[in-house]
Amino acid sequence: MVSQHGAQVLVASNRGPITYSLGDDGELDARRGGGGLVSGLSSVSDKLWVCSALGDGDREAVRRGVSEDGVRMLGIAPETHADAYNGIANSVLWFVHHMLYQTPLEPVFDAEFRRQWAAYEAYNRAFAEALAEEAAEGAAVLVQDYHLCLVPGLLRELRPDLRIGHFSHTPWAPVDYFRLLPDDIAEQLLRGMLGADRLGFLTRRWADAFTACAEDRLGGLDGTEVGVHGLGADADFLRARSHEADVDERLAELRADVGAAADGTPRRTVVRVDRTELSKNIVRGLHAFRHLLDTRPEWRDRVVHVAFAYPSRQDLAVYRDYMAEVQRVTDEINAAYGTDTWTPVQLGLKDDFARSLASYRLADVALVNPIRDGMNLVAKEIPVVSDDGCALVLSREAGAYEELADDAVTVNPYDVTGTADALHEALTLPPGDRTERTKRLAAAATALPPQQWFLDQLEALRAL
Ligand code: F6P
Hints:
CATH class of the largest domain: Alpha Beta
Radius of gyration: 23 Å
Bound molecules: 6-O-phosphono-beta-D-fructofuranose
Oligomer: single chain
Structural class: alpha/beta
CATH superfamily of the largest domain: Glycogen Phosphorylase B
Distance between the termini: 24 Å
Strand content: 15-25%
Largest sheet: 7 strands, parallel
Number of domains: 2
């Protein structure tokens, strides 16, 4: 069933570049998203993006046959999608690769897990079938992320003529942690991925972890090539966007909120911007900030922790609980140390891109302390956007560590007192040193802009 008019380049991901919402008047409103893949693809022609309908608006768009040029949204049944996305992708695969389980009690691979796994298979099959229908003879297909690990193998069976790549935006689990998965599931995942001609990872560390798992379970990579493509920040876009009027406005508001100490000196800022994601380690970041105030009274009234923690995956109870804990610890710190004129932690929960960019511009210190993270683009974006240079406190478990460690103040993300010391060190970096480090961080962070990142993968796939 090779398409005569099919696309030459196809991308497949769970979340697509567009979201529909259904207004009270019954009209559909389409909103375009951003991100590395959207900018990466912008220079490619004759392309098709295959994605899943996620919410009611998307499903209504699929039902009405509304679509954007270059996008095919799959109307996968909501129960199947929920079991595949919430049940398997986000509650099992994400937990394995980010090492998030509290292992005395979890994971439990029971009959419910097997039922959800069948949904994950069906959801992957729906993608493979759509890609097989849409791809031109010999086309390149780039499958994204842990949601779609089985697609390469399934697609290979349907269309042996295609060039198939898969890219992981997450870390990959080390061998001993990957062994938590039932053997048959682990093998199915690996064989699914090895259906690709080429696998891409964000860092050498994650690529090596995958290779080690494939050797452990299957005895090798079975001819599949593995490559590393460290997605960088989009400097041109960020520099232009962060100087638009709405960002200037938010910056003025933020400056006023942060305020000045009793002697009139503007307060310093420790900034973090994250989805409220279990792997981002926001709660330990707050504990570290509290430890700084506990142990170094000279910082009281002189520093504000601007913490933007935007809602994510709120269908999952563990994410809702985590968000509540972020709020609880924030309130505790503000109750213990806040005064009439100083709020030590300014927590922002409403996603606001312009305000995030304003906080990047203002940051004296950027706090990026994930437990484990595929790359962490915030670590790369803040040095690019920062007005006066910033010091970066960076977890050694973030993918960005491979490229940015030399000019960052690095931390073990579990070590709260160590992180507090790192915050102090970052806040007291001599201005000249801070400026020089920021320049080098920005250069390293922008070494591989999204468009080049995507084109490199496409070229490598076609060269095979
Ligand atoms: O980091 C992996 C990833 O899939 C990213 O590509 C994406 O930014 C993020 O997770 C989003 O997750 P979700 O679609 O579940 O909100």
